[in-house]
Each structure stands twice: as structure tokens, then as C-alpha cells.
Amino acid sequence: MATQAEEFGLYIGGKWVVPTGAKRFETTNPANGETVGSFVSGTAKDATDAIAAAHVAFRPWKETPAPKRGEILLEVAHRMRHAKSALGRIVTREMGKVIGEGLGDVQESIDFVEYMAGEGRRLFGETVPSELRSKFCLTVRQPKGVVACITPWNFPTAIPNWKIAAALITGNTVVFKPASGTARCAAEVVKVYEEAGLPDGVLNLVTGPGGVVGNALIDDPRVRSVSFTGGVSTGREVYVRGAQGLKMVHLELGGKNPVILMEDADLPLALDGVLFGAFGTSGQRCTATSRLIIHERVYDEFLALLTDRLDRFPVGDPLDPKTAMGPVASLDQEKKILDYIEVGQKEATLRYGGHKLTGGAYDRGHFLEPTIFETTHGTRISKEEIFGPVLSVLRVASYEEAVRVANDVDYGLSSAIYTRDVNRAFRAIEDLEAGITYVNAPTIGAEVQLPFGGIKSTGNGGREAGSVAVDEFTEIKTVFVDFSSKLQKAQIDSETVE
Ligand code: NDP
Questions:
Q1: What is the mean pLDDT of the chain?
Q2: Residues 319-336: pLDDT tens digits?
Q3: Residue of 331, 290, 146, 278 whose CA lies nearest to 220
Q4: Is the CB of 9 within 6 Å of ligand 1?
Q5: What distance in angstroms lies between residue 152's CA and the mean position of ligand 1's atoms?
């Protein structure tokens, strides 16, 4: 379904610009092939221009009182709320998640921008006693400078806002390089910031290939910090590249998130959770439930319940509110997931689905069946991130075995346990190697006022969201004020306490 594509430029220094001789690329609706927008394929020079604009804008923005910066963010949130329904539809059209989730993506953006607006009146430092008399010690937060935000396609408004709002409230200026597949969502987000009155150059958008635009951003000495969410191999490249310039590189990467289902679990509750966790967003969440570890005593019963529900799990038009699962996000995604399904067919037992959906409207999009494999621990499908609607189910004989299996992967983002035993639930909170643990809820469901991030190959130790979101974007300055009017020497001057 080819339509005239709406054209977007780059947003640099407060203007939408189309560089001379610019090449273009288009994004398409994964449900039906419709063109969603046409974008500039930015170059290294475009990235450099955007950095220059952000660099010029930095000082006045840094000097703007943080509560005033917060007022602009509140206006962003207000405008986004007003535009929520339109933005949610664009998310669904460009990325393919069902409309409830498209709207949820935008709601998460609104929530976070509002939360960060409030941070403008906090940005706490510490006051700490001095070991000397007449001396006052404190810390203040200062912005880093120009920061690069590089984002994936699966939360095409929420993840950019998580980074942009936290970077802006702390006084940084931003060059934003979104996933190419969801450039329209990115442009719409930037338009809201523009309309809310953000000063020129404070936020800049450069669309284009990651390897070109991303590298130019990471290499430029004026960019002091890189905030990246994406796949592990790209993240590793970004980290190594950033290390050359001794930059802060914040990485949020993949996951292979387990739900442990114990023999005493509330099975109907777990059933809803597993369906949503595994097949929501067609399994394309970094926190998606991709492993279901079931105690042998309820294994057969739960799998029967699960497959029965999948028989009544509508896959189709993501704009139809009755649809439970839309397409996967792109042809590349479709191919990658089907490759994994082929791997699974060789090393495990296919229990449900396993095919591309065809016929009628399915032929225009990238629709896959929700898929379940019964497998043993150690297979590729049980350990590698598939990032699609493919659930690996594993049978275990005890809690100890469940935890061993859950932890024995490279990733450590989200995890969950269903049990009615409160002691075991708290034991799991201690035992599970992950940045996030849910009890009696699926592996998905982040809330913006809580930290988000993972351990092991999921990242490099940072957290987004929550009150700690500002850590990534601030330098701590330690201040000593000596009002003794004499030279005092820490560690050297001593006093006897009488
Ligand atoms: P990619 O790693 O392919 O891309 C992420 C971003 O990096 C895109 O903007 C991409 O641009 C850009 N990029 C690509 N190559 C480079 C490069 N060499 N240098 C700098 N930037 C580059 O990930 P996906 O977009 O495919 O997203 C899926 C992945 O993201 C999954 O593995 C998922 O687990 C992870 N993810 C993690 C989350 C978390 O918080 N832990 C949340 C959401 C997703 P372009 O699109 O132009 O290639």
C-alpha cells in the first residue's frame, strides 16, 4: 500500500533542515507495508553540525535554573498528553505493537517527562560534616555537556524520552539518534519538545544509519556522554569506541528473562502474566518473558492451559483494539525470528505455533504465530535473546533447580516468580541474578519512578528511570568552604578532644 510519504528533515539548532544532496530513507508499517514517513539519511557531517549546535546551546541551558527547565518539561508532558491518541497510533503504525501498547508507550513518556520535571526542584546533593572546624562540605550536581542518545525501535517514544528528559532536566544538551525503523516516532517526539518552547540547539535530531551517525557522535570530543539502548553486539562496539575518548557510556542491552512457576502458584494469574509477558509487543521487549521455568508438578497442567488460551489469542491488525498480538517490527525481525524457530525445531520440541501467518491481510505484513518450544536448559533457544514471540519452556524438579536454570544465562535484566509461599518469594528476590524481580507478576511492567536496568551482559552497571536517572547525566562536584580565615590541613592538623 504505497502512499505519499510525509517528509521530515533533521532538527538542528532549532530548525528542521534538509542538507543539500541529502539521501532519504522511508519507514513502513509492518502490518501492511504502508509508508509512514521519509527521513534524511544523515551523514557524519550532519552529526557534527548537530553537536556544534548542542555545544553552543549548552552554557545558556546549563545556566537556566533547573526548576525553569522543569517547566518546559511539564509543558512537553502536557502537549504529549494532548497528542497521546495521535502519537499512539503512529507508534502502532510504525512499529507494529497493538494500539493499547502504542498508547502505553506514549503514556510512559508522559509519566517520565512529568517525573523528571519534578526533579528540577530536587537534584539533590549532600551536605557532609568536615573533620575541621569552620569548614562546610557539600556536593552539587553539574551537567556533563553535550550528550548523545541512541535508541532502539521497540519503545520508540518511551526510551527516547527516558533519556532526553533526564539529560535535559540536569542541564545537558542532546543529540538524539533514533533507530532508523522508527524515525517518525522520533521526529514526532522532537516536535513536541520544539512546540513546548525548548531553546534552539538544546535538543537536536539526526536520523540515519547507526554506523555513520552513531560513530560520528561517539567519536566527537565535544560529546561527553553516550546513552545507548540496543542489542549487545552494537552496545559492545559503542562501549569500546566510547572508551577511546574516555567517555561515560551507559548501556541498556538485551535480556533472556525467566518466569519461574512454582507448584503452589496461582495458575490462572500466572497464565495471564505469561501470555502478556511472552507475547505482548510480539515478544519484542527487552524484558519479555522468553523462558518459562515450570515445576514438574504443574508442568503439564499449565502448558495445557497456555496452549488452550493461545487458540483464542487473536493475531492481526494492531490498530484493532481486539487484537492481542500485532506483527513483528520489520522484515529483518521476521527473518531473525524464523531462523531461531528453525534452530528450535532442530534442538527442541515445538509445542505451539512456529510459522509465519499467511493469507489475506497477513500477506501484507510480518505476522508470526505465537510460538512455544519445550526444551532443556542449554539449548540455543533457551539461552540466546530471540526478541520475538517465542517462549522456551523448561521443566524443573525443585526451586533450587529453577534458580540455577534462571541464572545460567549471559543476561540479567528481568525475572519473575509465581508462588504463594512468602518465604520462597523473598528467597527468590535474593537469589535471582537480575536487575529486576517481580513476584506474582510477569517480567514486564516497568514504572518510571523506579530504577530500570540489568546486570551481566544486559548493561554496564547504570540504571535509567527512578530517582537515580539523573546519575547518568550529572557530574558530582565536591565543594569545601573554609570560613576559618586560616590554612587548615585535612589529615594533618589535629585536635585533642577534651
Ligand atoms: P540495535 O543495537 O541494532 O540498534 C540500537 C540503536 O543503535 C539504533 O539507533 C541503531 O541505529 C544504532 N546503531 C546501530 N549500529 C550502531 C553503531 N555501530 N554505532 C552506534 N549506533 C548504532 O538494536 P535494535 O534497535 O535492533 O533494538 C533491539 C535490541 O535492543 C534488543 O537486543 C533489545 O534487547 C535491546 N533493548 C534493550 C532495552 C533495555 O533497556 N535493556 C530496551 C529495549 C531494547 P539504526 O537503527 O540506524 O541501525
A1: 97
A2: 999 999 999 999 999 999
A3: 146
A4: no
A5: 4
